[in-house]
Amino acid sequence: MNTTSLKVKTDETIGNIYCCRNIRSLKRPLIGTDVPAGFPSPAQDYIEENLDLNEFLIEHPTATYFVKVEGYSMIDAGIHPGDILIVDRSLEPLHKKIVIAIVDGELTVKRLLSEKKKWYLAPDNPEFESIEITGDMSFKIWGVVTYAIHKMR
After folding, report:
1. Residue 34: its pLDDT value, please?
2. pLDDT tens per residue, range 113-140
3. Which of 89, 76, 66, 91 has its CA nearest to residue 14?
4. Class for domain 3-21+61-149, per CATH?
5. Domain ranges (residues) in the chain
6. Which are the catalytic amino acids?
7. What percent of the chain has pLDDT over 70?
């Protein structure tokens, strides 16, 4: 993986950025039935098809990057330190989407919110404050987060 070097936000929410290189498929067996999260159902002991994780998780390979998270500002969104975010730079950043933004030259991951004709980068942790996007700051949405990959704790 190639690492792209960008400045890290002072609250340490972004670690490294990696390019998405879809060199080969990554097919794994997909069980033929949904697994309920409630009451157990009789086991279906067969494989329906092979699922390619590249095809399932990455819609636009040339616009997709992986970002390693540091910090706790998005913990209530299920994004933990050490998680890898899949970021699609071709998607439109919309209200309530989780985005990677560049604020005054520094990267951060936050939820994009629009309230009363103002835009904010909001954390999903009450211990952190929102950042109001104003005209006097250097600001750009770098990409939209599509998936978070983390080890089960």
Report:
1. 60
2. 999 999 999 999 999 999 999 999 999 9
3. 66
4. mainly beta
5. 3-21+61-149, 27-56
6. 73, 110
7. 69
